[in-house]
Amino acid sequence: MIRPLRQRHRVMISALGVLLPLAFAVGIAARRPIPVASVPPELGGKVKDFAQVVWTKPDLWPGHGIITTLRRDDAGSVAAELTLRDLAKPDVLVYWAAGKESARESLPESARLLGALAPHVPLLLPVEVRDEPGRFVLYSLADHEVVATSKSFTLQRSNALTL
How many CA atoms lie within 13 A of 155 on its CB side? Predict the structure, then answer.
């Protein structure tokens, strides 16, 4: 009784040893190509060219080595670029908080998301924030805490800075 079972298992294992790699190779060769989707230009991650530097401030963030550069494009849109030296926090988002009070422990309710913090990526400032006092707030999404808060300043229509 055992011998016929062993012979049948030997034949099945030998057949599987040949057929399985062959079936795997045929399956890989028969795969359809990965579809390539076109993304609208607004969502494509293309960064506008903010070539003109309006001002650069290395002292806008007390206690942090963050350099803030304000840039403008040909259409008059304004963007802020933050260059970090000593910040090591995960998933940092940049907010604009209106008002003069500083956020220490939580994100203010009036804060507007500008975007994720990335090196050499300008963050577009909405037109509504001009002529209104406010500050930048760095918020770590992973840690759920305010990482840094800039000094309060007013960005005037002429792109001048008032601290």
Answer: 25
Residues paired with residue 67 on neighbouring β-strands, in sequence order: 83
CA distances from 102 to 23, 25, 123, 128, 129 (A): 65, 62, 21, 20, 16
Q: How confident is the model at residue 11 (pLDDT cuts 50, 70, 90)?
A: very high
* Angle ∠(87,94,159) on CA atoms, nearest 5: 110
Length of the chain: 163
Rounded-to-integer distance, Cα 137 and Cα 72, Å:
21
**pTM beyond cutoff 0.85:** no
Taking the C-alpha atoms of residue 132 and residue 46, their distance in angstroms, rounded to an integer, is 29
Condensed to tens digits (0 to 9), the pLDDT of residues 106-158 reads 888 888 899 888 877 888 888 887 778 888 999 988 888 888 888 888 877 65
| End-to-end Cα distance, the chain | 94
How would DSSP label each residue in 109-157?
Answer: TT-EEEEE--TT--EEPPGGGTTSEEEEEEEETTTTEEEEEPPPEEE-T
